[in-house]
Amino acid sequence: MNQQVDRSKRRFLVAATSVVGGAAGVVAVTPFVLSMLPSERAKAAGAPVEVDISKVEPGMQLAVAWQGKPVWVVNRTPAMLEKLPGLADRLVDPNCDVPQQPEYCKNIYRAIKKEYLVVVGICTHLGCSPTYRPELGPADLGADWPGGWFCPCHGSRYDLSARVFKNVPAPMNMLVPPHYYKTDTVILVGEDKKKGA
Predict the structure, then answer these.
(1) What angle do CA 66, 70, 79 make, to 5 degrees?
(2) Which of 18, 37, 136, 157 has its CA 20 to 30 A from that of 169?
(3) Which helix (DSSP H) or strand (DSSP E) does residue 153 occupy?
């Protein structure tokens, strides 16, 4: 009978030690496994961003952040839109023929809806953030300034479709991010509309 009691104690101790050791192993490994998964912040950095344009008045620029970059949404007035067709001879790439850009931006408006321009607000020269200058012919930019963006870092200029002018340091138009209209007043920046959706 003495041997029977010893064996059952031994089995109990082995089982208890195994359970406690296994639990300790899981607790020790969990932080390492979790550190390999992307954080919520990292997931959000590349996630699409919803932009409510219902309060963006004509002529106004709205700025949001997407992937750590400024994205501008501009509600262009009819007067702003009228100026765009006459600028082609002054621009490097008036039709936005860059292959990496979405098809819906390969036109003079560079937009799905011509009133609303959605563009990454970074100069294509060295990554500065240009200043929105919609006024016509200001003294510091010259009488022929049609409105657009001026980069204070090295003097690059863009029209109101974010197309770069000739003879400035920037080599190409500002980029149009993938986006689509979820509703008439909400744009999803960072994702193209799915086929068939």
Answers:
(1) 120
(2) 136
(3) none
Give the Cβ contact number of residue 180 at 10 Å: 19
pLDDT digits (tens, 9 = 90+) for 118-160: 999 999 988 889 999 998 888 888 888 899 999 989 889 999 9
Q: Are 51 and 65 in contact (CB under 8 A)?
A: no
**How many residues are listed for the chain in this entry?**
197
User: Considering the domain 44-189, what is its CATH architecture?
Assistant: 3-layer Sandwich (2.102)
Q: Which residues have C-beta within 8 Å of that of residue 52, sequence separation ≥ 6?
A: 185, 186
pLDDT tens, position by position, 65-84: 999 899 999 999 999 999 99
Q: Rounded to the nearest 10 degrees, how much is the dihedral formed by the CA atoms of 109, 115, 117, 118?
A: -130
So where are the chain's domains? 2-37, 44-189
Place of tokens 């819906």: 104
Q: Provide Rg for the chain, Cα atoms.
A: 28
* Residues 44/66, Cβ–Cβ less than 8 Å: no
pTM summary value:
0.73
- Return the active site residues: 154
**Across-strand partners of 69?**
66
Among candidate residues 161, 197, 194, the one with its CA nearest the CA of residue 88: 161
